[in-house]
Specification:
41% helix, 273 residues, 7 strands, mainly alpha, two-stranded antiparallel sheet, three-stranded mixed sheet
């Protein structure tokens, strides 16, 4: 009986979409930067792929055409990632670094999905180390400046602790319907601020971000998992939502004093879904 309950618990855990979000914890190795650096990293190959394969939908969710990716473009994606791994990122200025890490994260995510495609959810790509781990985020995927780096490293040990900007969550894409949209252009140092702001506004004002149902507020689970980045409380989350809300949502949020529920759709953001 005990063995049966153990197996049942494991199966339930594996099927559950609930995740324990990693904390923001700086990897000091990546703190170095050169404010005087004028080096510019080209991301044109990534922009071309995004413009060719992202698919805006009537529901406001941008999907990616994984099934339609041509062999030559898969090679171009792999080549772009390989080129990024040769960059001496520690010698870049902060703007170039921010664009670099965001683009690398998103390109790696697309690559990981393609490696296992067809797949219904990124959660099913269980390549992270550890018996109870799910998804691909913990696996070391590339080597940069001699360091093996995972998606978790990029998001939680580099981007979040160095920039301390909640809009990072609107930039890194986890290949899911519930995630902020994968934009149709690469982030670049000269446009990163505008793109972060645009994606924040788009997500907050989409039902995935915040939606009032019968007077009850449902928001993305992102605001639960990473509440520490949004003021550390529901009050902080509400203040963040109000900051980016368009007039209609802003009016409705004036009457809201707490969050009723959290929601997230882990279905793959594939074109045609």
């Amino acid at each position: 009986m005990a063995a049966f309950l153990g197996v049942a618990f494991l199966l339930a855990l594996m099927a559950s979409p609930v995740m324990a979000a990693p904390k923001s914890k700086l990897w000091p190795r990546w703190s170095a930067h050169d404010p005087a650096s004028m080096q510019v990293i080209g991301h044109e190959d990534w922009t071309r792929l995004l413009q060719a394969y992202t698919r805006p939908s009537d529901d406001g969710v941008v999907r990616f055409d994984y099934a339609g990716l041509a062999a030559g473009d898969r090679a171009a994606l792999d080549g772009y990632i390989a080129r990024l791994t040769t960059v001496s990122v520690s010698g870049l200025n902060r703007g170039e670094q921010l664009a670099y890490w965001i683009n690398l994260y998103n390109a790696l995510t697309v690559q990981v999905v393609l490696d296992d495609y067809p797949v219904s959810s990124i959660l099913k790509i269980s390549i992270s180390p550890g018996f109870f781990s799910i998804g691909p985020w913990g696996k070391k995927l590339v080597s940069i400046e001699g360091e093996e780096v995972s998606l978790d490293d990029i998001e939680h040990r580099i981007l979040r602790p160095i920039w301390r900007d909640p809009r990072i969550h609107y930039a890194v894409n986890c290949a899911s319907i519930g995630c902020p949209n994968l934009m149709d252009t690469a982030y670049t140092a000269d446009r990163v601020e505008a793109l972060l702001e645009a994606n924040a506004i788009a997500y907050v004002n989409h039902p995935r971000g915040a939606e009032l149902r019968g007077g009850a507020l449902t928001v993305s689970s992102i605001y639960d998992w990473f509440q520490e980045d949004f003021g550390g409380s529901e009050t902080g989350v509400l203040a963040h939502l109000r900051q980016y809300a368009r007039p209609e949502l802003a009016r409705d949020l004036k009457l809201v004093i707490d969050i009723d529920s959290y929601d997230y759709d882990w279905s793959l953001n594939e074109a045609g879904s």
